[in-house]
Amino acid sequence: MNNYSHGGAKLRAGVAGASGYAGREVARLLRAHPAAELAAEFGSAQPPTPEAARAARLDVLFLATPPEVSMAAAAAAETGVRVVDLSGAFRLGAEEFAHWYRLPHAAPALLAEAVYGWPEKNAAAIAGARLVSNPGCYATAALTAAWPLAQAGWLAAGPVVCDAKSGASGAGKGLRQDLHFCELAGNCKAYGVLEHRHTPEIVRHAGLAPDQLLFTPHLLPVVRGLIATTYLPLARPAAPEALLEVYRAAYAASPFTRVLPPPELPDLNGVVGANYCDLGLRVHAPTQTAVVVTSLDNLLKGAAGQAVENMNLMFGLPRAAGLA
């Protein structure tokens, strides 16, 4: 399934929700992609029908739609159409989804089929997937910090604390008073404290204990960009260079995750407009805590860029095609 052979023809891609921020970015990337073309655009309120997908002769469909629309669209997609979903519809189990999204999951059979689309961890599985669930922007930043230490056995049992801040585009295009420019300009505020839906996503895919994560997102008075500082308790003393080697090994095959040399730490200017996630760290020796800073563009590596990266893997294309 992971080889693309249409006699040299470009992949035909459709985007549902192309008028939203993430969908618009997917469409922009597809228009410049060397091996794909934007063959169809659909609205975000109603899923594209099988007839519409058939008429457009789609190879792949991107869903930048609300979860309930994504569920219907993914279920209705023809067998030969592969799907990359940018909503949270397929990131959690059915019970978790019902709890965090306050609605029942309408396509539970697809949950078992969906592959979590974080290429740094799941590249091989993504290559063979029919349905890929694109990670959230906050989750991508937090996973980049937590997953290598968790899988390598470096984490103690204490709480992992993630303090993350995103540009306002991460909240979507809907009109809300708290997202008006006059509310955000010169301001920074926390939201979803102890109840943000990215929390179980991070816990599940980082390999943390169920109650181990304290995650607090904030809105920054900028359009795009996300920076997260994650505090990770260590099971044993470690020098910064030893932990950096853990991260370098974990991301050696990942062209879009950059482990910065000390004493560099990431910032928004280094990632906005690009599909990178940058990482830097410090170690607080008295408390045996790793302080890991990650940054990314919430609309690219946190959404549309990662979605195109997943498409590349699904069709056997170079991972950086259309992104470098």
Summarize the structure.
It contains eleven helices and 13 strands. It is an alpha/beta fold.
Describe this structure in words.
The chain has helices at residues 21-31, 50-56, 67-76, 94-101, 108-113, 119-127, 137-151, 181-184, 198-206, 240-250, 304-314, and strands at 11-16, 36-42, 60-63, 82-85, 115-116, 131-133, 160-166, 189-190, 213-219, 226-233, 257-259, 277-284, 289-296. The radius of gyration is 19 Å and the shape is globular. A seven-stranded mixed β-sheet has the order 8-9-7-10-13-12-11, covered by helices on one side. A six-stranded parallel β-sheet has the order 2-1-3-4-6-5, with helices on both faces. It is an alpha/beta fold and 324 residues long. The protein contains eleven helices and 13 strands. The chain folds into two domains: 11-134 and 303-314, NAD(P)-binding Rossmann-like Domain (Rossmann fold, 3-Layer(aba) Sandwich); 137-296, Dihydrodipicolinate Reductase, domain 2.
Mean pLDDT: 92
Strand order of the largest sheet: 8-9-7-10-13-12-11
Number of domains: 2
Name the shape in a single word: globular
Taken as a percent bin, the fraction of beta residues is: 15-25%
Do you know the CATH architecture of the largest domain?
A: 2-Layer Sandwich
Q: Low-confidence parts lasting 5 or more residues at pLDDT below 50?
A: 1-6
Q: At the fourth CATH level, what is the homologous superfamily of the largest domain? A: Dihydrodipicolinate Reductase, domain 2
Quickly count the helices: 11
* Helix coverage percent: 25-40%
- Integer-rounded radius of gyration: 19 Å
Instruction: Quote the CATH topology of the largest domain.
Output: Dihydrodipicolinate Reductase, domain 2
